Amino acid sequence: MPNIRLENLVKRYGEFQVLHGINLEMKENEFTVLVGPSGCGKSTTLRMIAGLETVSDGEIFIDDKPVSHLEPKARDLAMVFQDYALYPHMDVAKNMSFALRLERRPKAEIDAKIKDVAEMLGLTKFLHRKPGELSGGQRQRVAMGRALTRNSGTFLFDEPLSNLDAKLRGQMRAELALMRQKVQKNMIYVTHDQIEAMTLADRIVVMHGGYIQQQGTPEELYKRPVNKFVAGFLGSPPMNFLEGDLADVDGRLCVQGQGFCLALSDERRQALANAPRGPVTMGIRPADLTYAPDAGDNTALDLRVVVSEYIGAQSVLICDCAGQKVEVELKSDTPIALGETLRFAANAQAIHLFDRETEEAL
Amino acid sequence: MSAASRANRLTPYLFLAPAAVILAFALLYPIGYMVYASFLDWSPSQRIGEADFIGLRNYTNLLQDAAFGESFWVTIKFAAVVVTLEMIIGVGLALLLDRNIKGMSLLRTIFILPMMIAPIVVGLMWRYMYHPTVGIFNRTIKSLGFEEGIPWLSDSTWSFIAVVIADVWQWTPFIFILALAAMQSLPRSALEAADIDGATEWQKITLIKIPLMMPVLIVTLMLRLIDAFKVLEVIMVLTNGGPGLSTEIVALRIFRTAQEFQELGEAAAMSNILLMLLMALTIGMFFYSKLQEARAARMRAAAEQEEAH
């Protein structure tokens, strides 16, 4: 399957520049997820790969062949659209076979292909229905089916699940993951939902403001975000950020802030030996705080519990730390009362530090 | 049931009453009057009460009247030809002009001008242009070196063509405007999907755009068909039905039956026949679209039910 490479890709609408030189390489059979808030340029990037938007500058290579001047049909792609983009006047079978019929493939081949894909997606019963006669989830499947019937090298997905309700979205996400195992193709998937990104991707590309912020495996991005944006974007509930100062206290390197002073691990101290002392932003994930009434002063935060959100096995506590908001995720059976100030130990390995000015990770 | 709740139930009907009254007087009364008149032998000198009731004789006379049959045939031929031409040219223009060109809005306004001119004026304009010696068409033909001009309004074949051209000129913009609106509200993403599926521009038009515009086009077609069956002024000014009966469409015949032959009952009967024809067309279309919608809604409901389990 082809190898896709974006080189210095730029998109301008008149004076307004929405993409600032995107460099990206997608390896064979990789599931790449472009994720970011709305307006970050992820959909534009995908549409430029598809050939639905013109390229203002830079180049797209498919198997080292520049394609930015080619029509979409010459790029060997299949795409699933956010609103499914089914042909409303054709039944499911006709929708799925449209591309093959345009290529004038033999009827027997088309029928066999449709039968296979319909079986895989559970659409066999609906082959003679029109899109208007299907539910949202079924339409979604038809859109996938239409992409699958073509033997394209690359699959593009433009927020395919965002029009579904929460329950169905979860179900389709699992089906997608399953389909992913059966279909070895390049897949490029755009979403604003970080859970979809984390669960589906081989590689996540986080975008913001027309720039790539970071790319890597979900685990890399989760554990070692390169800046505050990536750290805050991935993970649910999101990472807590506390303002403080990097300072040496009693021979240990600490983050000192209003109402807390946390000691960093030895490795961090060595790594940051030459870093300037002064204001930093500290990040810690809600799951890296644990209820520990007996923890030592330099390893824990004292938090006043303001709200408790019961989710089931887990609860999320929204707490106050001398005026800054901190969320804690913990088992629901932990004995907690609202309004109390309690001590939560912070996992020293999981403390992230960001430059206050540039927001880059230290 | 208490008085208060009964009053409550009646409230909506109270609010509907004025509209119902106006409808009854403005719509049902004239139609009823016309239907009644079609059973009478009635001349303009009589009051309606004095006319003789002759049952269905007006209708049976019409069915045996060769001239009426000829009129009817001319009307159908005229409607079929103009509406076909207008649909092809109107939709074709819309397809060509569905893009962002500078000055497009001005161009569009110019395109719909003919529709806004009063039909009498259109008739007069074209009559001058068709004039055998000073009309622009024949002068152009002669200046190109041809001996003879075309007998636009004096030959039975050419006069039919002449009224068709005038009508096409005036009403193509109507279809153009509606087709353009339909085209611009087509789902963008379906067309993009077709791009990716490898459709050429022509295939996108024939396989996606036109089928998706079909509901609007059918309504447009019906509106034009109804109008074409009733067209009067332009033809009256251009040919007044002649030469012979070659351009005498039913509306013109009705007008002349009432005005010249003073046969109000027969004119009413003709109007009724025309009305029934148009009603049949409209009702047929209405039920067809209702049926389609109901079927789609039913199947979608079933599908959603299934999914919920």
From TrEMBL, chain A:
Keywords, ordered alphabetically: ATP-binding, Hydrolase, Nucleotide-binding, Transport
Keyword Lipid metabolism attributed: no
Source species of the chain: Tritonibacter multivorans
Occurrences of domain ABC transporter (ranges): 4-234
Signal peptide as annotated in the record: none
Protein name: sn-glycerol-3-phosphate import ATP-binding protein UgpC
EC number(s) reported in the record: 3.6.3.20
Gene3D superfamilies: 2.40.50.100, Nucleic acid-binding proteins, P-loop containing nucleotide triphosphate hydrolases
Protein family: Belongs to the ABC transporter superfamily.
Leading EC class: hydrolase
Lineage of origin: Bacteria, Pseudomonadati, Pseudomonadota, Alphaproteobacteria, Rhodobacterales
Transmembrane segments: none
GO biological process, one term: carbohydrate transport
CDD domains: ABC_MalK_N
Automatic annotation (TrEMBL), chain B:
Gene3D superfamilies xref list: MetI-like
Chain ranges passing through the membrane: 12-36, 72-97, 109-129, 158-181, 207-226, 269-289
Organism: Tritonibacter multivorans
Subcellular location per the Swiss-Prot or TrEMBL entry: Cell membrane
Primary location: membrane
Membrane topology according to the record: Multi-pass membrane protein
Gene Ontology biological process terms in this record: transmembrane transport
Record's protein name: Inner membrane ABC transporter permease protein YcjO
Similarity annotation: Belongs to the binding-protein-dependent transport system permease family.
Gene: ycjO_1
Residue span, ABC transmembrane type-1 domain: 72-285
